[in-house]
Write a structure and sequence with these properties.
This protein is of the alpha+beta class. About 40% of the residues lie in helices and about 10% in strands. It contains four helices and four strands, in the order ββαααβαβ.
């Protein structure tokens, strides 16, 4: 499996609909919460999320979100995305879990993230990687 990049002549900016997001990312029980003295875990996130949604959402999907969102936030941090020190509440949660990227440093963070991801990928079995600011990386079975 290799990464393949494609570019659209109509693409004026990278990100598609993701650009509309504020970049807020929920995560429980990781280093950013621990640094603020917040004790949290994926099980508590799961319970809070289910409760906020009146238990009307698919539990398996929410469980996966609860278990993987924290490691995903750390992965982004490891790639160079810089978050504000303050966490925020995403709704009626008991604890602050929402990580906000520092928008004053986003361009630098995303550039660092892109370079780090390409460097890591080039040392992996997916050695065929190409990227640019006007490209989108997709997986292919080649």
């Amino acid at each position: 499996m290799a990464l393949r990049a494609w570019s659209s002549p109509n693409l004026r900016a990278v990100g598609g609909s993701s650009r509309l997001s504020g970049g807020l990312t929920m995560g429980a029980g990781r280093r950013y919460q621990r640094a603020l003295g917040i004790e949290d875990d994926p099980e508590s996130l799961f319970h809070d999320y289910m409760q906020l949604n009146q238990w009307k959402v698919e539990p398996a999907v929410v469980r996966r979100l609860a278990e993987l969102s924290g490691p995903s936030v750390e992965w982004l941090g490891d790639l160079g995305v810089q978050f504000y020190d303050q966490l925020v509440f995403g709704g009626d949660e008991r604890l602050p879990r929402v990580h906000r990227p520092d928008r004053s440093r986003v361009r630098r963070s995303l550039t660092c993230c892109r370079i780090t991801a390409v460097n890591r990928a080039s040392r992996s079995p997916w050695a065929a990687v190409s990227t640019s600011c006007s490209s989108r990386a997709t997986r292919s079975s080649a």
